[in-house]
Amino acid sequence: MAEITAAAVMALREKTGLPMMECKKALAECGGNTDEAVEWLRKQGIKTQALRADRETTTGRLAVYTDLAKGVGTMIELKCESAPVANSPDFKDFCNDIAKTLALGPGAKTAEELLAQKSAAHPDKTLGELKDDLFNRMREVFDLSRILRIDAPCGGYAHHDGSKAALVEVAGNVTGPEAAEAAKGVAMHVVALAPQAVCKEELDPAVVEKEREILSEAARKEGKPENIIAKMIEGRLRNFFSQCVLLEQPFVKDDKQSVGQFAKSAGLEVKKMENWKLA
User: N vs C: which end of the chain shows fewer Cβ within 10 Å?
Assistant: First the structure.
């Protein structure tokens, strides 16, 4: 039987991040061969994952990746079991790696398809293998619950705690760092104020009509004559739109202008938005 030295155990620990005793056992099982020990540990971890598959993943992180020049934006949701793991540097890095791989790779329709692809940050491994390695170190179940890719220029923003994130598809001036920063600013606004629609035309007509009825009834109770109520309502509807429509809302970073005015000044046209909260 091969002698398992402390140096070999330490080297395997540094490579895998696993406890010393597990590393020592793996080397003993594999006759001191480090590469075989790494694979043995990975397989043991997969078995353990299967036993814990029914655990609830109640927290996690959202991550985004955008590249205006390449014309792509992605957003992903990776769930885990506890807040300490969700806030750990390794978990954050893995979330960002998934979003980047989804953007720069061939794309994927399902989480399983994406996890089978080589990682953008660690091209010698698939995302699935990295996920297994992370489980081995943290002993929590992970669930890649949502993925989204938009094949168009996008601005993106994820809140620092990973609980909220948004992608905003844009057109027009989509080159250079200033355009990227402006598009990100619009996405940040979406995360902050959660508009219901990009423009007035996207709002459900029934919702607008209901608001019109409410405002009309309120004006009548104020004793306003019917011949001026219609004009009053249009003015009050503008306030309604400024609360729920992205392009009409006061820009969160400069409330002296609307988001629409800010985007126009940056040469951007906002086409679509996706706004997620950690489910």
Answer: N
CB 77 within 8 A of CB 107: no
Considering only CA atoms, give the Rg of the chain: 25
The verdict on residue 1 lying in a domain is no
247 lies in some domain: yes
**pTM for this one?**
0.79
Q: What is the pLDDT of residue 79?
A: 96
For residue 41, give Cα distances in angstroms to 12, 17, 33, 34, 85: 10, 11, 12, 10, 20
- Residue 258, CB-side half-sphere exposure with 13 Å CA sphere: 18
* Boundaries of domain holding 11: 6-51
> Is the CB of residue 137 less than 8 Å from the CB of residue 17?
yes
Closest CA to 257 of 168, 201, 185, 177: 185
Q: Give residue-wise pLDDT tens across range 103-140.
A: 999 999 999 999 999 999 999 999 999 998 888 888 88
How far is Cα 90 from Cα 16, in angstroms, rounded to an integer? 13
The per-residue pLDDT for range 41-72, each reduced to its tens digit, is 777 765 555 545 567 788 999 999 999 999 99
Helices (H), the chain: 6-16, 20-29, 34-51, 83-86, 89-104, 111-115, 127-138, 177-193, 205-221, 226-244, 259-265
Q: What are phi and psi of 264, to 5 degrees?
A: -65, -40
Q: What is the pLDDT of residue 199?
A: 96
Asked if 177 and 102 sit in the same domain, the reply is yes
- Tell me how many domains the chain contains: 3
